[in-house]
């Protein structure tokens, strides 16, 4: 079958690879759409410390069941999927935080991903939903920001500032707004800020033009935000968040 | 320290986050079309990755349609 293989940094090509092995408890899926993540760009540029080469990329997936095996999921079911693994034994897993498993192997990073015609995935990683392939493909990237909002214990009484309106930030904005919180979106790109408003942001700050600290105080009756979600990933923005 | 700050990490996501996002999308409460810059075929995907690497701010979300 065909797949996108990153042979080494800067070298991506379509190759013929073996069809997936369907293990016990796995479901065979036809891949419909895969989204590129910022981490894929880092893998392409040789800047992702977690990836190994050669590597089939792809962890933002929508797919359709072609063979459910012994598992009770119907052929033709459209799904999103969780691309992570958990070992069950490390400190994070034993603390019931499998999402933070020390030995996690994400599709497309530590193991081959979904940019291929077919993949085999354990049943428990599948999320059937009545959504188009395009919307299903957006599920995984939005969950990361949603998880941050959950970790931040955001409520409708909170003012939340989200630094960075890329993929993770948009999920955080949508998650914060869906909890009824005042959601202040911060970025240096006006186009991203416009999209952030469409995703539920109530206020925006272009930190390349505005004085971030002053504007945040204005927007929060002088209190400052109750929750700040840093979704950029630089030392400067981390210090700014603190 | 003086404001008793809680600094929390957040890694990946869990089943409850998947359920919440699916609910959001099923309710039509996210600007899906505006969030996706371009959809390419699998054969076009290597070229799209190279273009993105040359100009990261040009694209928000690139999707690959396999079929």
Quantity of strands of chain B, as a count? 2
Q: Quote the beta fraction of chain B.
A: 5-15%
As a percent range, the share of helical residues of chain A equals 25-40%
Which structural class fits the helix and strand makeup of chain A? Answer: alpha/beta
Quickly count the helices of chain B.
3
Give the CATH topology of the largest domain in chain A: Quinone Oxidoreductase, Chain A, domain 1
Largest sheet of chain A: 5 strands, antiparallel
Strand content of chain A: 25-35%
Mean pLDDT of chain B: 92
Query: Which H/E pattern describes the elements of chain B?
Result: HHEHE
What string, H for helix and E for strand, traces the elements of chain A in order?
A: EEEHEEEHEEHEHEHEHEH
Describe this structure in words.
Chain A has helices at residues 38-45, 91-94, 133-151, 167-178, 190-198, 212-219, 235-241; strands spanning 2-8, 11-16, 26-35, 55-56, 60-67, 78-81, 118-122, 126-128, 159-163, 182-187, 203-206, 227-230. Chain A is of the alpha/beta class and 242 residues long. Chain A has a 5-stranded antiparallel β-sheet with strand order 7-3-5-6-8. Chain B has a domain at 32-67. Helices cover 39% and strands 12% of the residues of chain B. Chain B has helices at 15-26, 32-35, 45-54; strands at residues 38-41, 62-65. A two-stranded parallel sheet of chain B has the order 1-2. In chain B, β1, α3 and β2 form a beta-alpha-beta unit. The longest helix of chain B is centred in the first third of the chain and has 12 residues, at 15-26. The model of chain B has no long low-confidence stretch (mean pLDDT 92). At the A-B interface, β2, β3, α1, α3 and α4 of A face α1, α2, α3 and β2 of B.
């Amino acid at each position: 079958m065909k797949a996108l293989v990153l042979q080494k940094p800067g070298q991506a090509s379509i190759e013929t690879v073996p069809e997936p092995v369907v293990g016990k408890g796995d479901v065979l899926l036809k891949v419909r759409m895969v989204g590129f993540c910022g981490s894929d760009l880092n893998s392409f540029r040789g800047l992702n410390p977690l990836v190994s080469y050669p590597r089939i990329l792809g962890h933002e997936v929508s797919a359709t069941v072609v063979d459910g095996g012994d598992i009770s999921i119907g052929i033709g079911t459209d799904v999103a999927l969780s691309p992570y693994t958990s070992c069950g034994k490390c400190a994070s897993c034993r603390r019931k935080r499998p999402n933070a498993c020390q030995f996690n192997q994400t599709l497309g990073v530590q193991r081959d991903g979904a940019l291929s015609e077919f993949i085999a995935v354990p049943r428990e990683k599948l999320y059937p939903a009545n959504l188009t392939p395009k919307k299903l493909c957006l599920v995984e990237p939005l969950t990361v920001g949603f998880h941050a909002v959950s970790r931040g214990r955001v409520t409708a009484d909170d003012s939340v500032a989200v630094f960075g309106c890329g993929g993770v930030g948009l999920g955080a904005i949508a998650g914060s707004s869906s909890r009824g919180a005042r959601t202040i979106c911060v970025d240096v790109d006006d186009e991203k800020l416009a999209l952030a408003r469409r995703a539920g942001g109530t206020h925006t700050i272009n930190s390349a033009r505005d004085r971030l600290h002053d504007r945040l105080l204005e927007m929060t009756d002088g209190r400052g935000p109750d929750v700040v979600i840093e979704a950029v990933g630089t030392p400067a923005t981390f210090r700014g968040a603190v | 320290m003086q404001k008793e700050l809680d600094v929390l990490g957040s890694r990946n996501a869990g089943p409850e986050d998947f359920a919440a996002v699916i609910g959001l999308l099923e309710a039509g409460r996210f600007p899906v079309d505006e969030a996706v810059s371009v959809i390419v075929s699998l054969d076009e995907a290597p070229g799209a990755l190279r273009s993105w690497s040359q100009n990261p701010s040009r694209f928000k979300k690139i999707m690959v349609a396999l079929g």
